[in-house]
Write a structure and sequence with these properties.
With 92 residues, the protein is an all-alpha fold. The protein has helices spanning 2-17, 32-59, 74-83. Helix 2 packs across helix 3. The longest helix has 28 residues, at 32-59.
Length: 92
């Protein structure tokens, strides 16, 4: 069970890098060194989105749907917050 839990975390991370988040495939990079640099930057961005999602979730908790799951993932919540104009506003 512990191995499955670790694997699931990796699967979620790669999903966040791909279509559910940063859309890594759209870059069409083929050079290994460039891909490595981009993945390193995206790992930092994922971490930042996670930190922001924890803060934002305390301010505005996510709704829990009737099936017991959040209305969106914490990663998506943080990424949406970081991407919003209010987050990057110089007045805040």
């Amino acid at each position: 069970m512990a191995a499955y839990k670790k694997r699931w975390g990796i699967e979620v991370f790669f999903a966040n890098l791909k279509s559910r988040g940063f859309d890594l495939e759209a870059t069409h990079l083929v050079h290994e060194d460039r891909i490595e640099k981009l993945v390193a930057l995206l790992a930092i961005a994922c971490s930042w989105a996670h930190i922001v999602d924890e803060w934002v979730a305390k301010q505005h908790p996510l709704k829990i749907k009737t099936h017991g799951h959040r209305e969106k993932s914490l990663f998506r919540y943080g990424l949406d917050a970081v991407s919003s104009p209010e987050y990057s506003s110089p007045s805040q």
